[in-house]
């Protein structure tokens, strides 16, 4: 098995990325484990920065058809 330290998300659809973000948020809220919300926030922050959008604009973009 090949070892790697980073994973590319180039092939993840907008819908799938939104589902991942929502799942992290839901799990964090339901379990009260802050790591889930911190990971969600980190992903949203990084991806919105790459798109030159605010975090809210990025989430809205993912929610568009």
Roughly what percent helix?
Answer: 55-70%
Low-pLDDT parts are none
**Structural class given helices, strands, pairing?**
mainly alpha
Instruction: Name the quaternary structure.
Output: single chain
| Shape assignment | globular
Report the sheet-strand fraction: under 5%
The gyration radius over C-alpha positions equals 13 Å
- From the N-terminal CA to the C-terminal CA, the straight-line distance is 37 Å
Total helical segments: 3
Series of secondary-structure elements, N-terminal to C-terminal: HHH
Task: Indicate the mean pLDDT.
Answer: 93
Strand segment count:
0
Largest sheet: none
Structure description:
This protein is an all-alpha fold. It has 3 helices and no strands. It has helices spanning 14-31, 34-50, 55-63. Helix 1 runs antiparallel to helix 2. The longest helix has 18 residues, at 14-31. The protein starts with 13 loop residues before the first helix and ends with a helix.
